Amino acid sequence: MGAKQESTSGSKDADRRLGRRALLVGGTAAAVGTAVLARDELARLWWRAPGVEKPREQGAVDYTGARWVAASDANWRRADRPDDFGIDMVVVHVTQGSFASAVRAFQDPGHKAAAHYIVGQDGRVTQMIRELDVAYHAGNRDYNERSVGIEHEGFVDRPQDFTGEMYAASARLTAGICARYEIPVDREHIIGHVEVPGTDHTDPGPHWDWDRYMKLVRRAATSGPPSGGPTGPTPSGTGV
């Protein structure tokens, strides 16, 4: 499985981060002699308080044509991206298994990892985590916070698994993500899991055709891929 849990503890670090940010905001507000900055920051962070959740539309997807199947809450953490963490990267993964097995893994709270999307060999796209939330997919906290993770059905040592339908569907998906967050369409911002610092994964592997993929992403980007979202709820199910 390409996705991997964050490399550091979640809840305690999140609490400490919130505390540090509150102190920074408070200090800045005092320095400028106004509470406006602190008030604005607290307005964005109110839902992080215990027992409070930011309103969500159940089943909404960020990419037109994606099918919504929710991942387990244990495999991601709630956020408000790109307001709290800027998104500047797409990470390409390979499932090392079937489409169905990836869906089951991401729904398993014991797996402790999931990506935002899965793309099948037939070109179907399932979204399991909202882009505004942090998925545990890269094995690196910083990269998780700043990226969208896309899994691709197959095995790294089977070039036949990377079909034309998969490349085309994934390229449209990536082009839409790049358009939403103004991410440059280049290899510095569209990377493989293997390129994430500290990871022990090798996906998408030597048979992933980066030249072909990037040409398709650029073509989709210039032809006006669907980039707005969320698009509203879609039927849920197994995604298979």
Automatic annotation (TrEMBL):
Keywords attached to this entry: Cell wall biogenesis/degradation, Hydrolase
Reaction(s) catalysed (UniProt annotation): Hydrolyzes the link between N-acetylmuramoyl residues and L-amino acid residues in certain cell-wall glycopeptides
Top-level taxon of origin: Bacteria
Entry keyword annotation includes Cell wall biogenesis/degradation: yes
Domain N-acetylmuramoyl-L-alanine amidase positions: 76-205
A Pfam short name: Amidase_2
Disordered, as annotated region: 220-240
EC number in record: 3.5.1.28
Protein name per the record: N-acetylmuramoyl-L-alanine amidase
